[in-house]
Write a structure and sequence with these properties.
The protein has about 220 residues and is α+β, with helices and mostly antiparallel strands. It has 8 helices and 10 strands.
Length: about 220
Amino acid sequence: MDSSTPSILTLPRELRDPHARTTSQNPDWQNQLNLLCDVTNKAPNLATLRVAVGRQYYLNSSTFDDRNVPSILIPGAKRLENANSTPFLPDVPNSLHGMSLIQRGESYHIGYALTCKHIQGIQPLIPTYTIAGCAYSISRGIRKIGVYTFAREGEHHSKRLWTKEEVIARWPMRKYPRQAIQHGSDERAALLARLPLELTEWVERRGEVEVKRWA
């Protein structure tokens, strides 16, 4: 948030940069929206408001081909096509008390999750790697990311827009261990090494008019 009045700058961090870990089916999202509406209503001099939404979920390696990661995710174009019927993340209003939504970006962020040790005596059916003599399967941590910026008309807001690099740095995904990266081809190793450092199937719109054309 940006403001020209000292009173707004004293808002606690959770109000200056709200971060909701929720889903569109979670009733808590309405509470988050109520909070945002209250903030914008009680802060008439507020210039910009940035919001980040994250949804955590995991996909087991038995159904996950890490050599072709994007193929098992919903491509950005498909998500836009089904935006009204199947929201990727919680619905976000186009305005909050006179502040227009001027940036919307959504994507997947993929990294390494916890490993699962195979039961002794059972032959694993999926690729494994070894640490300290024990076989582990590769688990993926996948997070849905949504970033949104609201601004008042006429305000200079270009420096307040979310960047992909900022999102990755702020909520980093765990990097794959060396043993996992070394298992397989050079192409696969390069893919696993870079996945936690980029956003996959990123879709973004900037400007009030373009954001309204999201779907």
